[in-house]
């Protein structure tokens, strides 16, 4: 048992009147004690529930990220020259269960246009046990679970797209994920999954969220950590996928903006897109739909794919405006360039 961790647990778990928040340094130490297994299972389970009930602060999230930076894997993105900053797409690790994800095609569109993309995640996990990104990539012909971190890094340098598979590349978090499955609730560590960057250099982090307070936590956490460029999206199921069924609520932050942080409300109907998000009825069908779009076919996903691809092309600096972004996304698909990019990655991984 860790006596130090017990004090952290007592501090956050003492209730509304006497409980206190952890400092950034304490949160970093608590995270390290959990990841290194120095806290007992009873202590970790109690901490995760107490932290969820209390709700995390930006300083606590920043501290946990400090520990992830210290003990987690890092892709040295500063060692590779790209025309655009590396984009990290933060996706909920517990997957998708209600709507069809188009994130992999968004990543392919960006990589095709020269924007390097890093994704990260693992296998099915609680509380949703939804379809994870790694299984979608396997369905598209790429098994990211088989690569070492060195190969993952090389894949980014050679093709502009890679995936950090946390069960293999960050095994220290595997026990904590098992606690998450057992307690049946998403602890604040689930928020860390969205805003963590497995890269050593400056990146542009795209962060999905569901509840409005979460967006402000993320914004404050990035500010504490000195992150100048990030995007927050009230996306489908907490992902980075823009919804067609409602106005997209987006936060923009980067040094070149007039303000450090700006709000963008994106209405799909203003650009001629439909108002329907496609339901996830069959996981097999999901792969077929995504593969069809990549191959230049048109199915019910096409509006969501172009809408998302165009937005991210604009946001990453490839296109000067949204309209041009939507046009370029459609052109890249129709000209089979996205399909060629996928095949390039498959060929490289097979070699």
TrEMBL record:
Annotated Glycosyl transferase family 3 N-terminal domain ranges read: 6-68
Quote a single Gene Ontology cellular component term. Answer: cytosol
Respond yes or no to whether keyword Transferase is given for this record. Answer: yes
Q: Which UniProt keywords apply?
A: Amino-acid biosynthesis, Aromatic amino acid biosynthesis, Glycosyltransferase, Transferase
Any GO BP annotation: L-tryptophan biosynthetic process
User: Highest taxon of the source?
Assistant: Bacteria
Domain (Glycosyl transferase family) spans 97-335
**What GO molecular functions are on record for this protein?**
anthranilate phosphoribosyltransferase activity
Name it. Answer: Glycosyl transferase, family 3-like protein
What is the originating organism of this protein? Rippkaea orientalis (strain PCC 8801 / RF-1)
């Amino acid at each position: 048992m860790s006596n130090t961790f017990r004090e952290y647990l007592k501090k956050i778990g003492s209730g509304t009147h006497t409980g206190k928040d952890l400092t950034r340094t304490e949160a970093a130490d608590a995270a390290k004690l959990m990841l290194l297994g120095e806290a007992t299972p009873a202590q970790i389970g109690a901490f995760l529930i107490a932290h969820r009930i209390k709700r995390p602060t930006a300083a606590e999230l920043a501290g946990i990220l400090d520990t992830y930076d210290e003990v987690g894997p890092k892709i040295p993105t500063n060692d590779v020259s790209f025309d655009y900053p590396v984009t990290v797409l933060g996706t909920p690790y517990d997957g998708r269960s209600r709507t069809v994800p188009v994130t992999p095609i968004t990543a392919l569109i960006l990589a095709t246009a020269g924007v390097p993309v890093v994704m990260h995640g693992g296998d099915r996990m609680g509380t949703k046990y939804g379809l994870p990104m790694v299984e979608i990539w396997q369905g598209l012909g790429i098994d990211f679970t088989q690569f070492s971190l060195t190969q993952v890094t090389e894949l980014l340098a050679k093709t502009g797209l890679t995936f950090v598979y946390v069960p293999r590349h960050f095994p220290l978090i595997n026990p904590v994920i098992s606690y998450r499955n057992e307690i049946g609730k998403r602890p604040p560590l689930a928020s860390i999954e969205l805003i963590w960057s497995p890269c050593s250099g400056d990146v542009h982090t795209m962060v999905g969220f569901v509840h409005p307070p979460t967006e402000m936590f993320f914004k404050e956490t990035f500010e504490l950590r000195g992150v100048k460029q990030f995007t927050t999206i009230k996306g489908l199921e907490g992902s980075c996928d823009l919804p067609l069924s409602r106005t997209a609520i987006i936060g923009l932050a980067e040094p070149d903006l007039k303000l450090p942080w700006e709000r963008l409300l994106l209405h799909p109907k203003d650009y001629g897109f439909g108002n329907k998000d496609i339901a996830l009825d069959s996981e097999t069908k999901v792969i077929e739909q995504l593969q069809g779009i990549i191959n230049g076919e048109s199915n019910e996903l096409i509006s969501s794919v172009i809408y998302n691809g165009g937005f991210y092309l604009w946001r990453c600096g490839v296109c000067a405006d949204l309209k041009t972004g939507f046009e370029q996304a459609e052109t890249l698909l129709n000209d089979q360039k996205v399909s060629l990019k996928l095949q390039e990655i498959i060929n490289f991984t097979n070699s």
